[in-house]
Design goal:
Blueprint lengths: L5 H9 L11 H6 L6 H14 L10 E6 L5 H16 L3 E6 L2 H12 L13 E3 L2 E7 L11 E8 H9 L8 H4 L5 E5 L6 H4 L7 H18 L5 E6 L7 H7 L3 E5 L1 H6 L5 E6 L4 H21 L7 E5 L3 H16 L3 H14 L6 H10 L3 H11 L5 E3 L8 H7 L11 E4 L12 E6 L8 H14 L6 E2 L2 E2 L17 E6 L3 H15 L7 E6 L3 H5 L1 H5 L1 E9 L16 E5 L4 E4 L5 E3 L4 E6 L3 H9 L6 H7 L6 H6 L8 E7 L9 H22 L3 E11 H4 L3 E6 L13 E4 L10 E4 L1 H20 L2 E6 L6 E2 L6 E2 L3 E6 L4 E6 L11 H9 L7 E3 L5 E5 L7 H16 L4
Parallel strand pairs: 1-7, 1-8, 2-5, 2-6, 4-5, 6-7, 9-16, 10-12, 10-13, 11-12, 13-16, 19-23, 24-33, 32-34
Antiparallel strand pairs: 3-4, 9-20, 14-15, 17-25, 18-24, 20-21, 22-23, 26-27, 28-31, 29-30, 31-32
Length: 862
């Protein structure tokens, strides 16, 4: 076998003119309760292909279905039972998993005809005119009855114990040696510790799981006809051991990204906002109820569920109690204030919040309050952390949430619902009292939960039921019931961590969703003497000392701090596209209350004096740090507010949040800049090929957006332009305009210089401000040469909105012009460094650039 994954080999054969894919037998269609989706049919075709005698080279007794959460793995499992019974005479099946909850769910799915989630035909299984029964057993009969499938449902833990500590009339290896077995392993990633771990010191849980894998492998080897079929949404094929074990066993792969792109899931949108828990819970409740109203107006029966997710049981219980208080104390006047505030903050008409508040603004609020207080009560809430949660009644309610006679609307939980929980009408997951400093394990768990919540709710609309999204390209407000919203904080570090976990949750074998746009240095340029032997000049850096840090400015913290308050962001999973819901704003200064400042400092351990002194050695005490104009005493906080909101309306809690946000920003800059290297006026040459080479930019095939930038990129063919060193330019609109400007003056430049080359600097050439720690990478370099001198020109297109923030960059590069302190280390040629104003498409700024450019590069006396 090659290292090509099995499903890829099968798919290649199916695409061959020499191979005819097998059909799914009619008896499977006739005996399952749900219509098979195309990808489920494909999964079965590929499985059947491996079991046919005429494809013996790929007929395996151990296979894995790697399919996304919510894609219907259990229906595929039910179909494989029917196939193996009919075609290969298998009658004895052991279903095992690591969780009792999944056992109960699967028992209903495979045996309980009265269950709404029963997977076989409720009228009975009929194959070749014979009624076939499924009988649940503890042990398999010595003389099996005809037309009967025997099914043992157990946990892997219990299966292992039963086999290693046999009891009278129990399951034993010896008894199983003489019969054919099919082992069905759900959530199969739990039985791979032996494979995935080579550590000697295993945890107790890992040691248990390692023995489970031994048990399963031994069962598989008991009889040559035995089958082991695994099902999981989670397998790490980046792990070499797991790849080696499974690459020739993955019979079908249908990852979360494909599942979502094909429309079988809800859309997933991150609602990012810095709100306290009470605000977050109230807004989530209003959004959930908005979905219910929208559904009802379209004659759709819907009971949307909210999950409030905490990281500690105590926090979950406190939030549960606080939620009931919010509901009990809600009045018409309070709701009116919430709506007015929401409309002033969320003005973007594309925002779900704007749509929701607009809707409530048109309703009779007395009835809205009554509905909320009727729908959200102790009787409609489950706290999955209570000991009473383990009752049969709660377990039943939790697994029948879609039923209209099930009253539950809200669930409070920590970690009991991460696996084996099937719910289609979950539309809001709300993160409660969790900061940004989460481990990857935590965000991986959140990503798994989001994947479970993304299961599509197949509602009936205009007489038709659909199992696929219908309103992606429609302005319909029914998008609200095709979307899962994940309510979380708006904190960059946490969001990046969560996005990594979400990306990893798709699959480990990456499916290419990007166009790779490659810009190559032209062959003629590579061969040119100036490129092979020339140099780019960057300044040397030296370590800083404690004497270099006497004020906030030395840490790149400036006296005026500007921030948005309640910046609310909606972001669709799988997309970099964000919707900022507050689009009109005005700026007001926040008067800094010294007592709140001290409280914020007390709440952040970094600013406790014994720690702060290590990073800010120039201060003698906290009084100096708070009052000195070089530090907090000179601070001004400017807050950008929605147009109808004023700073006077801020509560003390809101003021404290803004101050804490500044301190977080200050801490980050102090940590990252202390004892950083600073730039010197000494510039030394680095060979062109070391810094300038081919580069690649990845662009999404879906939305044409660059993955690493917050801006759209286009490519321009530059092969015919001998002055541009790359074969194409991958640039945004402003950069493209800049290239047009250079092109307009290229002939005049060539009249004055023997060599004229424009170089795109793709994050390689970095210069650092002289006697400062800030560095940047100019977007372009212009290489010019005449008989006397070589010129290195720093050029930077800049959007007007970044002018003030990046003014220091312009000041820095322009300070290089004829600076007597600048020393250029060159062996045998005259080198000059030139900095020019920012290029802009704003008329006044563009004119200033033009005058600077022509005066310094074309009209100057050299």
């Amino acid at each position: 076998m090659t290292n090509e994954i099995l499903h890829s080999q099968i798919e290649d054969r199916f695409n061959s003119i020499f191979e005819t894919p097998p059909d799914v037998p009619q008896y499977i269609y006739d005996n399952v309760s749900h219509e098979l989706r195309p990808y489920q049919e494909q999964a079965l075709r590929q499985f059947i292909y491996t079991q046919r005698s005429d494809t013996a080279d790929v007929a395996f007794n151990h296979l894995l279905f790697h399919m996304a959460t919510g894609s219907g793995k259990t229906l595929v499992l039910a179909a494989t039972i029917l196939y193996l019974y009919k075609e290969h005479g298998h009658k004895n099946f052991i279903f095992f998993v690591n969780s009792d909850a999944i056992i109960k769910k699967t028992y209903d799915n495979l045996t309980n005809v009265s269950s709404s989630k029963y997977l076989f035909d409720k009228e009975g299984i009929v194959i070749d005119g014979n009624h076939v029964s499924i009988q649940v057993v503890d042990t398999f009969p010595f003389n099996p009855a005809g037309n009967t499938i025997y099914l043992k449902l157990t946990t892997i833990q219990k299966l292992h114990i039963d086999l290693t500590n046999p009891r009278e009339n129990g399951l034993t290896y010896e008894a199983l040696e003489g019969i054919k077995l099919v082992l069905l392993a759900d959530e199969a990633h739990h039985i791979n510790v032996l494979t995935r771990s080579d550590k000697r010191n295993l945890t107790t849980k890992e040691a248990q799981e390692r023995t489970w894998e031994h048990t399963v492998n031994r069962l598989l080897r008991l009889h040559p006809a035995n089958r082991l079929i695994e099902y999981t949404a989670t397998i790490d094929l980046n792990n070499d051991s797991l790849f080696h074990k499974y690459h020739n066993k993955i019979v079908y792969q249908y990852d979360l990204k494909r599942f979502m792109n094909d429309g079988y899931s809800k859309n997933v949108v991150l609602l990012r906002a810095n709100e306290d828990d009470n605000q977050k819970m109230l807004h989530a409740m209003l959004l959930s109820q908005y979905r219910k109203y929208i559904a009802k107006e379209n004659d759709i029966d819907l009971k949307p569920i909210i999950l409030f997710k905490s990281n500690k049981i105590a926090i979950s219980k406190e939030a549960n109690a606080a939620f009931f208080n919010i509901v009990d104390e809600l009045t018409v006047s309070k709701l009116q204030q919430v709506i007015e505030h929401g409309l002033s903050v969320h003005q973007n008409k594309g925002s779900i919040w704007n749509q929701m508040f607009q809707y409530y603004g048109r309703q009779e609020l007395t009835k809205i309050v009554q509905d909320l207080q009727w729908d959200f009560t102790e009787q409609t809430t489950i706290n999955a952390n209570d000991s009473s949660f383990l009752s049969e009644e709660n377990a039943l309610r939790l697994n029948t949430l879609e039923d209209m006679n099930n009253p539950i609307r809200t669930i409070f939980a920590v970690a009991k619902l991460n696996e084996g929980w099937d719910v289609l009408n979950l539309f809001d997951i709300v993160r409660i009292s969790e900061g940004a400093s989460n481990t990857k394990t935590t965000t991986d768990s959140e990503a798994q939960l989001i994947g479970r919540g993304a299961r599509y709710y197949p509602f009936e609309h205009k007489g038709e039921q659909s199992f696929i999204r219908r309103f992606d390209l429609s302005p319909s407000n029914l998008k609200a019931i095709e979307t899962l919203h994940y309510h979380t904080i708006n904190e960059n570090a946490y969001i990046k961590n969560l996005e990594k976990s979400l990306k990893a949750a798709n699959i480990q074998v990456k499916e290419d969703q990007f166009d790779r746009l490659e810009a190559k240095v032209k062959p003629k340029i590579r061969k040119a003497d100036w490129f092979r032997h020339g140099k780019i000049y960057i300044n040397k850096v030296v370590p800083t000392t404690s004497e270099d840090y006497q004020s906030f400015q030395d840490y790149n913290i400036y006296p005026v701090y500007e921030t948005d308050y309640e910046k609310s962001v909606e972001q669709r999973y799988g997309s970099k596209q964000e919707v900022i819901t507050s689009i009109r704003s005005h700026v007001q200064p926040l008067k800094i209350d010294k007592r709140l400042l001290q409280k914020a400092i007390q709440r952040n351990k970094f600013f406790h004096f014994h720690n702060l002194k290590e990073y800010v050695p120039s201060i003698s005490g906290m009084k100096e740090f708070i009052e000195s104009p070089d530090f907090l005493g000179g601070l001004s906080i400017q807050v950008s507010l929605p147009i109808n909101l004023t700073i006077d309306e801020f509560s003390r809690h809101q003021q404290l949040k803004v101050i804490e946000k500044f301190l977080g920003y200050a801490e980050k800059n102090i940590r990252s800049n202390y004892m950083k290297e600073k730039g010197t006026p000494v510039f030394e040459g680095v060979a062109f090929p070391e810094l300038i080479n081919d580069y690649v930019v990845e662009m999404s095939k879906i939305n044409n957006k660059v993955t690493d930038f917050d801006e759209f990129k286009n490519r321009r063919n530059m092969r015919e332009y001998d002055w541009y060193i790359y074969n194409q330019a991958i640039v945004n609109g402003l950069e493209s305009s800049f290239i047009d400007f250079i092109n307009d003056y290229i002939e005049q430049l060539k009249e004055k210089y023997t060599d004229v080359y424009l170089i795109r600097n793709e994050r390689k050439v970095k210069i650092v401000e002289i006697n400062g720690t800030r560095g940047f990478m100019p977007d372009f370099l212009l290489y010019l040469k005449d008989d006397n001198c070589t010129y290195q020109v720093f050029l930077e297109p800049k959007g007007k909105h970044l002018y003030d923030k990046d003014q220091w960059k312009q000041d820095f590069i322009m300070s290089l012009n004829d600076n007597p302190d600048v020393e250029i280390l060159s062996e045998n040629e005259e080198i000059r460094l030139i900095g020019i104003r920012f290029y802009s498409d704003e008329p006044d700024l563009k004119q200033a650039f033009k005058e600077d450019f022509t005066e310094m590069l074309i009209g100057q006396e050299k």
